[in-house]
Amino acid sequence: MTSWQVEIWSIGGLLLMIWCWFKAQQSSTGGRQLFRVMYVLLSLLLLALSHRLWSMVSGPEFSVLYVLFHISWVAWLLIASRATIKYKTYREKQTTEVKADYSRRHKCLVFLLAAPIALITAVCLAVWFSRLLVSELANQWVLTFILVPLLWGCLAVWFAAERRLIRPAVFSLMVIPLSMLLL
Amino acid sequence: MKLLKQLTPSRNLVKQTLRSHAWIGLVLAAVLYLVCLSGSLLVFKSDFERWEQSSSEPYLSISDQAISRALAAFQTKVNRPVEALYFVYPSKDLPRAHVADALDEWWVDKDGALTAPVDIPWTDMLTDLHYYLHLPGTWGMIIVGMLGAMMCGLMVSGLLSHPNLFKDAFKLRLGSNRQLEQTDVHNRLSVWSLPFFFVISLTGGYIGLFGISMTLVDYFEEDYQAEQIISEVFGHDPSVDQPAVVPQINKIHRDLNNRAPDAQPLYLVVQNPGTDQQYIEVAAYPPDRLIYSEIYRYHSDGSFIDYQHLADGSAGRQVAYSSYRLHFGTFGGPITQWLYLVLGLAMTVITVTGVNMWFEKRNVRNRWYTSWRGFVWLTPLALVASAFGTVLLDWSAVGIFWLVLAGGSLLLWAGMYRIHRFNQQTLYLWMKQAALLLLIVLLFAHGFGHTDQPWYWSFSLALTGLLSLPMINFRRLIPNP
User: Fold this and answer.
1) Number of domains, chain A
2) B225, B288, B327: best to mutate for the A interface, most A CBs within 10 A
3) How confident is the model at residue A35 (pLDDT cuts 50, 70, 90)?
4) Which of A12, A41, A66, B230 is most deeply packed, by most CB within 10 A?
5) Domain boundary at A14, A46, A81, which?
6) Looking at the structure, do residues A112 and A174 belong to the same domain, yes or no?
């Protein structure tokens, strides 16, 4: 098979896989459990087949990415084909004012916590995690560099979600000095 | 079922994460939009370079003698000490070679003669917008890196605030209720392309925050300096001490061909030229790998020193060196490039619909919403206007871009809200039409003198198609039951 043929077969496999998933979801109502399991298994099989096909021509590294990335647009096509449209005009009373959830002081504090404090906390936690999980030095550092953005993002979400800012503040104020002492 | 129920976040958690998702998204929306849009376009960076500056006839291979001539000609031309001298091979993406150091860059023809200095201000403007948001180097990079981190956070909060993730996986309700429509588009696009967004955000955060993470990690590592950490991760430089001779490019290429016959040379560097520490590095891309390249090192006489073990070194080194190709989609050829463009534009749409949802949910029609929507449609216009001004009139690309974008958005913020009778949809349509019209004029005015004739027009057609997309009403393409 040429690479183009493989491409087409693999994408076809993904389309079928998503369709099976859709059917499995539809079978979740009305006690059709057997069909559901069958569709789920079939979709997993098709996923593995698409991966195998891509792997044959492009190697294992690319094939994982191809499967993960091509699923998106294939699924969007299926979703768009099933979209429902209503052309009734929908009018609502509209306003120009938005009530603020929190005071400016609270927002400034969230910004301070979610930006610099969360970054420093993220670096400390990343160093902790990588030292715990990995033994080789070079791998440790790379894992730290990769974990930093992920942990920073998660901490920022937590800090912005908390109504009582004292909790994330205490957490950070414990992690940072402890890291400075122990690491 | 029990497990699914247990995994479903509680109502309180959903509420909290939704609030933080909205907060972070709203605060960063404008810069996220710029970074996502410029990043989507930058997948075709080489094509933009080729499109922007016409040069000699395209070619895909160059002789060893021509490379030697180009290196010598460059050194004569700049006539100053050079720390590292780069020769970038022609490739399918950019079928012309160039030679450069830290300050100057010249195109090279097939015979190795320097033809013209590389002058691509618009592509540089687009690159700088994505890398630095046009802010001073380090700060810009940190802020863009922070966006990568916040996008990771937005993904986590988005997942937690969406308890009906699986139930709604195939729902798309378009038409009458704008909030519902924006929500469905936002959720369907984001959920189904989650792996891509995760990879892009993480690699973006990693690249952007490398410097600041390095500084902080350096603080915790008492036994290592920052340079030592870098060389431990990416490999050490060889120590060379022998009289410099003219680099024997043919011997180097012969050895590389025997050593890695399938590898595609990307660039060659003469390190410390003219000194006793002179040596040559050739970066070559091994097929079907995500690492940017393997680097082979040679003495000037062509004898092999070693290679950097980027392809077969520690897992950390391979992962670290794979981030560029993963982030910019420079693997797997044109299909991957188009895939990255589509998914990158989806990311842009997600940013826009996220903000729209916030306003629509609250039924708010104020100056902020007007200027946000104006900002969204002014950005393509600003990009085209800056290309027009730069390529045809030699004006500053960055200046025009910000003049159109910031000036237009401010005008909308200040005035549009009060003009109730003015139809805003018409205004946005004018913006889209103006961008398309300006692009068509630019393509014709710039195109006739271009040396890559058939390629130029096919790329121009693709650009026109891309800019026509916002004018298509996609709802009409879906059959009405």
Assistant:
1) 2
2) B288
3) confident
4) A66
5) A81
6) yes
* Neighboring chain A residues of B342 at a CB cutoff of 8 Å: 73
pLDDT band at B4 (very low <50, low <70, confident <90, very high): low
pLDDT 10s digits, B215-266: 887 777 777 787 888 888 888 888 888 888 898 999 999 999 999 999 999 9
Count A/B contacts: CB-CB distance under 8 Å.
226
Provide the shortest C-alpha distance from residue B116 to chain A (in Å).
Answer: 37
> B54-119: what fold?
Nuclear Transport Factor 2; Chain: A, (3.10.450)
Q: Test A68 with B195 for CB contact under 8 angstroms.
A: yes
Whether A87 is covered by a domain: the verdict is no
Q: What is the mean pLDDT of residues A53-67?
A: 90
| One-letter amino acid for residue B8 of the chain | T
Please check whether residue B121 is in contact with residue B390, taking contact to mean a CB–CB distance below 8 angstroms: yes
Q: Which residues contact B337 (CB under 8 A, 6 or more apart)?
A: B43, B44, B329
> Strands B173-175 and B105-108, how do they pair?
unpaired
Q: How far apart are CA B276 and CA B20, in angstroms?
A: 58
Interchain CB distance below 8 Å, A152 and B316: no
- A97 located within any domain: no
- Is A92 within a domain? no
Contacts of B39 (CB under 8 A, 6+ apart): B130, B200, B204, B344
Other Cβ atoms closer than 10 A to A25: 17
Q: Write out the residue range of the structural domain in which residue A148 sits.
A: 104-182
Q: Which of A82, A137, A143 sits opposite B232 (nearest CB)?
A: A137
CB contacts of B235 in chain A (<8 Å) are: none
Determine contact, residues B117/B104, Cβ cutoff 8 Å.
yes
**Radius of gyration, CA atoms only, chain A:** 25
Q: Where does a domain end: A19, A47, A81? A: A81
Q: B59 burial class (0-12, 13-18, 19+ CB within 10 angstroms)?
A: middle
ipTM (interface pTM): 0.91
How many Å from the N-terminal Cα to the C-terminal Cα in chain B? 33
